[in-house]
Amino acid sequence: MSKGFGVCSESGQEMLYAIGIVSTLFFSIALTLFVRHMARRQGLVAAPRADRWHQKPTAMFGGIAIYVAVMLGYMVFAPSLPNARPILFAASLLFLAGLLDDIYQLKPYTKLIAQVIAAATVVYFGVRLTLTGSEVINDFITIFWLVGITNAINLLDNMDGLAGGVAVISCVFLCVTFFIGGQPAEILLPALLGSAVLGFLVFNFNPATIFMGDCGSMFLGFMLGGTALMSYGRLRNLTAVLLTPVLILLIPIFDTCVVTVTRKLSGRPISQGGRDHTSHRLVAMGMSERRAVIMLYFLAALSGTLAMMVRFVSPSITLLMVPAFVLVMLFIGLYLGKVKVYEEGQQPEDNALIRVVADISYKRRVFEVLLDLGLVALAYYGAYLLRFDGDIPDVQLAIFMKTLPLLMLMQMAIFWFGGVYRGLWRYMGVDDLITIAKSVLGYAVLAVAGVLVMYNFHGPSRAVFILNGLLLFLFVGASRLSFRLLPALVLGHQHRVSPDARPVLIYGAGDGGALLIREILNNPCHQYMPVGFIDDDERKAGKLMHGYRIFSSLELPGVLERHHIHEVLISSEKVSENRLTSLRDLGICLRKMSIRIE
Asked: Does 451 share its domain with 535?
């Protein structure tokens, strides 16, 4: 009888949770509609500005709907959670501070003081990280975490639907974290928060008709940071304790790092608004706003999935997975940091710090050397994991630790003398990959010989060095190709095109045509929008080159008319004069832009 009553009680609780989540969603939708109507009626709209992304007046104060929906949902449906009350109280203080900022434009340091007070309030009531044995250090880390996540979400609120969508994804993974950790009551807090944001997101996704404002972003950021703290008490795996909340909220953290570093290096105040966020840089590469936001949604889901995996895999595998993912995000950040997001005259002038960093990164190759040291360690460790199926014996782990410094020195010497550091990443080609392969092969041979001699040909696994060589070639090759692969993976063949770009055809689908289209795609200043290729070789017709179709010369009149093309670029010097004459007879302009192949 008691067992049946328990099942019934549990089922009733789940039903109550479901009703609370759905009700909060509808609260949020209704409140957002009401706030939007009132904001428009009272003229409380955000006007377009040079340092903001939106192009038309948009209703403000959507954060009021999020806040009220969360508080209603909590008071009506949430159980009594001792740790939730101080988080909600402190988040309410930041909601009020954000509301004042939306109305009166508070100074950045004023908002920072409010954030520190709110974070200190949570710590005072006993909600804190327990990462060290010192209570003072734990309190400081907790305050830093809460203030950091609050500002990260605030900075992320820079494009339609971005902050709200990433917050919903984070709430989903926080719910999963509580479920896995055996905290069913705590699930309702991120669930209610996610539902409230989802209701607002209906009207905030591109094209947005309402913005949340600082009152929403500061409240949302603090709630996410505070809710993540509630999962620490049930985590026993140290790596999960350290990594789970960081990975769940990685995208706002990543965007904050990109903005902070690039603004510091360019001489712009970090607190100053600007169109230099991750989302803006993706759009500057050629993506649509929606696609840029969806891509960041995908990365948020990917990092959240990794956060869940960390809880189930062994620490040894985590030490491979997480650094590899961080390296991928690092390459994305490095590439996006180079994307031009300001027009001429808007970008701050170069300063001494920028010149120093540029000199270190690109002339002295220090960055590449440090990167390769990390890749060598990662490949060597990954080889051991693969060889021993993720469970490295203590004896082999001792060999790894003792031989790693030697292999790093070997790698540095062989890569240096092998010419690996002479190439430019942007122009990476097959010849560079062959250079890397030769260097990796030489490194692998010397590594086997050196380690086996150290251990008198007993102990080290030979298979480890084969796997090590393969992984190292993969890692180093991928790192060098990253600046060419990232645009291709993100955009396909759809590169950024100027609004004034003219549609053109390229005559000649050969080596010259391949070089010419790469030049056009890599340099928008040419003001050309490639439509495809024309070639006299009928066997090439219908095929693709660099993602663009090759048309038969017989199709030329129809292609010109269909795409409104008035210009053809000649990529080959072998085109006969008769063919050029026939092209001119069609009323098009011919330009010879052939690139000589030495």
From this structure: no
* pTM above threshold 0.85: no
| Distant-in-sequence contacts of 313-320, Cβ < 8 A, 24+ apart | 313/390, 314/390, 314/391, 315/237, 315/238, 315/239, 316/385, 316/390, 316/391, 316/392, 317/385, 317/390, 318/239, 318/243, 319/239, 319/381, 320/378, 320/381, 320/382, 320/385
Between the CA of residue 141 and those of 135, 144, 170, 232, 241, what are the distances in Å?
A: 10, 5, 21, 13, 14
Answer left, alpha or beta for residue 510, where phi above 0 means left and psi between -120 and 50 means alpha: beta
Report the distance separating Cα 364 and Cα 361, nearest Å: 6
pLDDT in tens, the chain (598 residues): 334 434 445 666 778 788 989 999 999 999 999 999 999 999 898 877 665 666 688 999 999 999 999 999 998 887 667 678 999 999 999 999 999 999 998 888 899 999 999 999 999 998 888 777 788 998 999 999 999 999 999 999 989 999 999 999 999 999 998 888 888 888 999 999 999 999 999 999 988 999 999 999 999 999 999 998 887 655 555 555 567 788 888 999 999 988 888 877 777 777 676 778 888 888 877 788 888 899 999 999 999 999 888 888 887 888 888 888 888 888 888 778 777 776 555 554 444 444 444 444 444 567 778 888 888 999 999 999 999 988 889 898 999 999 999 888 888 888 888 888 776 666 677 788 888 899 888 888 888 888 888 888 788 888 998 999 999 999 988 888 877 777 666 655 555 555 567 888 888 888 777 778 777 776 766 778 888 888 877 788 888 887 788 888 777 778 887 888 878 888 766 666 666 677 676 666 666 654 443 3
289 & 434 share domain? no
Is residue 598 included in any domain, yes or no?
no
Q: In DSSP terms, which residues pair with 567 in a beta bridge?
A: 589
Q: Confirm whether 349 is domain-assigned.
A: no
* Residue 333: other Cβ atoms inside 10 A: 17
Residues 188 and 55 in one domain: yes
Look up the domain containing 579 and give its range.
Answer: 502-592
> What is the three-class DSSP state of 126?
coil
